[in-house]
Write a structure and sequence with these properties.
393 residues, Growth Hormone, Chain: A, mainly alpha, 17 helices, 84% helix
Length: 393
């Protein structure tokens, strides 16, 4: 059906473009606030509004991919995102920058949900969990490393060049998708865009306790990372005095944690099953949040924040593939709908948590620690639901 190596490269481009657009410019946030002479929380809204439009647009693109195919929608989204990237690059005030970010979000909403549908079209069972883990960890590592690159760009060339890099990376994505991504949808659904059909399928998914439990677990674990990236540019640079380049090096530790978690999932998922790996990951989420909470009461320094975040990201890398596979497992016939709703819930929930984090005290790690601890507790409770439903059935 496809060449595996080039297929993985293509879906990695699809999975990473939206996240690199999310994170590359984060070290430049304080500089943008200074250049436009606006409050820091107004610059943080460029992230929140991007995530909001990025999430909601997926609800349309999922059904559209069932009607027109996966590849045309993904290609359309990346090409049209170039307009938003150009507007960000040449913005003259905070308003066009926010508008450009909204255009990027509306366009790149094609990516997050449809890439899950592509994997569900191509794999199943533990193989789906393994592939989903590989892609999710690769995407999350790109998201974590992007601020490192962005910090270096900010130090040497200024914040506008971050949006130029996004523009050029998007063009590379267009080429990779055109050449390497096959159409994985076997049969187009001519009724997919009928309102009644859309409503029926989304209601089916929302009423499934197993689907929603796995989806919310994936949402909350990912949202904790986005909350960190919302708060951290100002916490580390303004409060702790790190430069943009020094701050940009910190996410490498998070990328390492995500990679370790992904390796754990890949090695042990077939032996222990995806749900046991999910439980293991959720426990690490909680311990990461709790350790930051305890440390933040007594001290405020780089390692008191980053070491708990490292443990948290190992947990994310361990459980995210299992969440993805568990949610989509029983919905092959409506994979486009299932993948898009999963992506919408994940990113919309993250945008709300990002918005909350942007309006909390950023001179201490305590609010972030509370958010991470709460996500750990909630995901631990949610992961019990699929087991109870299966036993009851």
């Amino acid at each position: 059906m496809f060449q595996k190596k080039t297929f993985y490269l293509a879906i990695l481009f699809v999975a990473t473009i939206g996240l690199i657009v999310t994170d590359l410019y984060l070290p430049s946030m304080p500089a943008i606030a200074r250049d436009f002479d606006v409050p820091s929380n107004l610059v943080q809204y460029t992230l929140s509004f991007y995530l909001l439009t990025y999430s909601i647009s997926q609800l349309f693109y999922g059904p559209a991919s069932e009607r027109f195919g996966r590849k045309p929608l993904i290609f359309f989204g990346i090409v049209t995102s170039l307009i938003g990237s150009g507007l960000c690059l040449f913005s003259w005030s905070i308003t066009p920058l926010i508008v450009g970010r909204i255009l990027q979000g509306l366009s790149l909403g094609t990516q997050a949900g449809i890439v899950r549908a592509i994997m569900r079209d191509s794999f199943q069972g533990d193989e789906l969990a393994k592939t989903a883990s590989f892609v999710a960890v690769g995407a999350a590592c790109a998201m974590a490393i992007a601020p490192t690159v962005g910090g270096f760009i900010q130090l040497t060339m200024g914040w506008r060049f971050n949006f130029l890099v996004i523009f050029l990376y998007s063009i590379l994505g267009v080429i990779a998708i055109w050449r390497w991504l096959p159409e994985t949808l076997q049969e187009k659904n001519l009724q997919a865009l009928r309102v009644s059909h859309i409503f029926k399928n989304y209601i089916t998914l929302l009423k499934s306790p197993i689907y929603m439990a796995y989806t919310l677990c994936g949402c909350l674990s990912f949202a904790g990372i986005l909350a960190f990236f919302t708060v951290s540019p100002f916490l580390f640079q303004k409060t702790l005095g790190l430069s943009a380049a020094e701050y940009g090096l910190l996410p490498i530790l998070l990328a390492l944690g995500l990679a370790i978690g992904g390796v754990i999932n890949s090695i042990f998922v077939r032996k222990f099953g995806r749900h046991h790996l999910l439980v293991c990951g959720v426990v690490m989420l909680f311990l990461g949040g709790l350790s930051m909470l305890v440390l933040s009461i007594w001290m405020l320094n780089t390692w008191a924040i980053m070491l708990p975040m490292f443990l948290y990201t190992v947990g994310v890398g361990t459980c995210v593939g299992s969440c993805n596979a568990g949610a989509l497992h029983g919905f092959a016939a409506i994979a486009g709908f299932a993948g898009s709703l999963y992506g919408m819930v994940q990113i919309f929930g993250s945008s709300l948590l990002s918005f909350l984090a942007a309006n909390l005290d950023q001179t201490t790690a305590l609010p972030l620690a509370c958010i991470l601890t709460a996500t750990g507790i909630t995901t631990f409770l949610l992961q019990k639901i699929p087991t109870k439903v299966i036993k009851a059935g």
